[in-house]
Amino acid sequence: MGPESHHFDIPQVPELNFDAEPSEGLRTPSPSRSPTPPLTNAGRPGRHYRLPKRYEDLPPEPPAPLPPPPPAPALRRVILHVRDTVRTALNRFGLLREYPRRPSYDPDASLGSEDLANWDAPPHCEPAIPNSEGLSFLPPWPFKTMSIYLFMEWLNSGSNLKSVGEADRLVNGVLRHQEFKASDFDGFSARRENRRFDQVEADTAGAPFGGDGWTTSTVHISVPTGQKDPTGTGCRFAIPGLHHRPLLGVLKAALVDVASKRFHFSPFKRFRILSFGREERCYDEVYTSDAFLKADDALQKQKNEPNCTLEKVVLGLMLWSDSTHLANFGNAKAWPIYLYFANLSKYIRAKPTSGSSHHIAYIPSVSAWVSSGLFLY
Amino acid sequence: MQEVWNTLLDGDFVAAYKHGFVIQCHDGQSRRFYPRLFTYSADYPEK
């Protein structure tokens, strides 16, 4: 559905009000607004048309903000073990959040409409420059400046793999960057710069980005031989080629990454208030699940580390492993283990461009090793 | 597979699981994080 389909050109539609309560103006036309309703062509008073409910397109809305903290700093040291449930107000959809204790950080507080929906609000577009001097359609018509003209010409010609979103990214992130200078591009070749980029990782092994800390190990497995073995270890085989990264390093790197801005450090319950006042629990994210709340509760009851008064936070790990084919032809395969964080909303996590998957290991295939001849350890 | 996990869940991770690790977050506050496993879905290797 394109953005256009959100608009309906129906004459005399009163201002649409998406609030739960229908506005006064919709039910009874207030006399101050239209003392004499406009007449139709037939001379009858015009009607007030109202869009059928099914056409109401509610834009998404972030959850209601947290209530301000109570001004009681004297009690802070006691609160740790006391139930200190915080409830937010309802948002438009009747959803509220209930935290078992006051969270120190609310990632949803800064959610913008672009985080909640993947369609852009139809941009306000100025009409084309009026063509006052007769029939002059010379560039930059219909654009404002020559720079925009050249850019738009590039965007709409050549390869059709350039998307509108990527074009905006290029303009706002690169061309308008403070340090961007067109003169730096004297004799530029993208191919050569890419080669330089590849080269630098091979050269600087000690750098933090050099290979991202990947190491290679050998794992040992025990295979039963079919003969009686009192020790029960069977025959030990060494399987080389396990590529992996130190797990703790991956966790630390992810937490200083910019994506951690959206991490929920405190779990909560989400409720929906039905029209007749009944509450319904909403299970939508890992950090609103009972398992997360239980893990958090157990962690808060756990004794603090000595001399540490920092907030204790559950970092939820979600692991997957699945062997995948790497090519459409041939049998190039990889068997990765990858990690997602449960603290991140599934709506962000599941976006292919969010970069929220972290590769932990690539498992060697035993069958490939066996077929190449058993290696006796 | 168990051996692979034996390699991955190294001493550093186990120590962090028990005692947490401190990171300064994006909002400038330091917090002590305790990794906890919530899901693990895997399949048998394909032939």
SSE order and pairing:
The complex is a heterodimer of chains A (about 375) and B (about 45).
Chain A: H1 24-27, E1 86-87, E2 95-99, H2 113-116, H3 146-155, H4 164-175, H5 190-203, E3 215-223, E4 235-244, H6 247-256, E5 269-273, E6 279-282, H7 290-301, E7 311-321, E8 324-325, E9 333-334, E10 336-341, H8 346-349, E11 358-362, H9 366-371
Antiparallel strand pairs in A: 1-2, 2-5, 3-4, 4-11, 5-6, 7-10, 8-9, 10-11
Chain B: H1 2-8, H2 11-19, E1 21-24, E2 30-42
Short account of what is shown:
The complex is a heterodimer of chains A (377) and B (47). With 377 residues, chain A is of the alpha+beta class.
Computed over alpha carbons, the radius of gyration of chain B is: 15 Å
Number of alpha- plus pi-helical segments of chain A: 9
Query: What is the quaternary state of this protein?
Result: heterodimer
| Element pattern of chain A in H and E | HEEHHHHEEHEEHEEEEHEH
Lateral strand order in the biggest sheet of chain A:
3-4-11-10-7
Top keywords for this entry?
heterodimer; A: 377 residues; alpha+beta; five-stranded antiparallel sheet; four-stranded antiparallel sheet; 16% strand; extended; B: 47 residues; two-stranded antiparallel ribbon; 34% helix
